[in-house]
Amino acid sequence: MLTLHSQKPVPPPRVVIMGAGGFVGRFSSKVLKESGSDVLDLTRRDVDLLALSAASDLASRLLPTDTLIVTSALAPVKSAAMLLDNLRMMQAVCEAVTASPVAHLIYISSDAVYRDSAGPLSEDSCAEPGSLHGAMHITREVMLKAGATTPLALVRPTLIFGTGDPHNGYGPNRFIRLAKQGKEIVLFGEGEERRDHVFIGDVAEIVRRCVFHRATGVVNAVSGTVTSFREAAELAVELTGSSSKVVGSPRTGPMPHNGYRAFDAALLQKVFPDFSPTSLREGFSKMEGSCPV
Description:
- The strands form 3 sheets. A 7-stranded mixed β-sheet has the order 1-10-6-5-4-2-3, sandwiched between helices.
- Helix 4 links the parallel strand 5 and strand 6.
- The protein has helices at 23-34, 54-59, 80-99, 132-147, 172-181, 200-212, 229-240, 266-271, 280-288; strands at residues 2-4, 14-18, 39-42, 66-70, 104-108, 152-157, 159-161, 185-186, 194-199, 215-221, 226-228, 246-247, 260-261.
- The chain is of the alpha/beta class.
- The protein contains 9 helices and 13 strands.
């Protein structure tokens, strides 16, 4: 489901990143610049996608030879109002690239578009989200497909971990921060849920490869390995040499995704055979020396 239109990696004349101040946008910009790309970073201060002038503001900055990467989103989506704001943001993007077409468009979506499954998910799995957050991303994908004729690649990351995460959500990022502080790590239930965790550096590298190979279609940014939250917490304690205790807690609601969210990384390995996902241990080791407390 991912087609490479340039077999050799060739940097485009310029890459424009809408949402360059966010987690994925910031790391993608860094990796692309380190690879010799000319990158124009756009943040909300440059183009506010909720402003009435958003479409024209963005269009005025685009060139016909640009690759546009869209990472901007209000996330996670927790209300209908947030959902609608996110769709308005994408409406502005669609209007901008209609008025000022670019050569290539990449949208950073989410694995939340997929319906839960008892087996590993793939790019062919049913995109039937069960959350507002997933509904936002799948609707944005459809808007781009319907509203733009630009060659389009959709990158769908699973749970991302790495230094600089702004959310501090439950999982590896929070665990290593608490471990570095020597604080207790409290799990939901016994931390038995098993999930795929992908390193931010890997997501940025997958984005870079999609840019350089002029990819179109869909690819999941995943590691292909599942780890329980308890294992992740205990690993964070081990690698930081922390005195933190890992403890369970009563679960107050249903277990997300029925406790299992795995991915088949076969397509990723097929299109980029020399790409090797970063393990949770390797990623933690990279974070340990730089993760702020």
